[in-house]
Amino acid sequence: MGMACHLAALIGLLGIPFGNALGPLIFWLIKKDEMPFVDDQGKEALNFQITILIVVVAGMIIGFATCFYGFILTGPIMLAAGVLSVVFAILAAMQANKGVAYRYPLTVRFIK
């Protein structure tokens, strides 16, 4: 189930708005009281996906506020954030499958 918390972030690839954060949130809320490992990994996955979501939303706001000129700077940053989101979610899922608690780099810990 810890692995599922990380892989649930890939729901966002299906085009579901905020799916990258909703997937881990749902798994975490359902299993957090039953399994301490899922509680830990669910919070970790959710914090990382919220961080990615903030980067993308901030990039969109900057891009639109500058009449699309801001996308020259924020476009590559948002693309990199999206790729890193997928890569780190897969790496985290592989580690969680082994029973190892994974810690995402560059993550703001909103939920402790």
Short description:
With 112 residues, the protein is mainly α.
Considering the chains and any ligands shown, give keywords for the structure:
single chain, 112 residues, mainly alpha, 4 helices, elongated
Could you explain how this protein is built, in words?
This protein is mainly α and 112 residues long. It has one domain. Helices cover 68% and strands 0% of the residues. The chain is elongated. The model has no long low-confidence stretch (mean pLDDT 95).
Total number of helices: 4
How much is the average pLDDT? 95
The rounded distance between the terminal residues' Cα atoms is 19 Å
**Quaternary structure:** single chain
What is the number of beta strands?
A: 0
Percent of residues in helices:
55-70%
Computed structural class:
mainly alpha
Indicate the radius of gyration in whole angstroms.
15 Å
| Strand residue percentage | under 5%
Largest sheet: none
Outline type: elongated
Low-confidence stretches: none
Topology pattern, helix = H, strand = E:
HHHH
Number of domains: 1
Helix and strand topology:
Blueprint (H helix, E strand, L loop, with lengths): L1 H6 L11 H13 L4 H30 L5 H27 L15
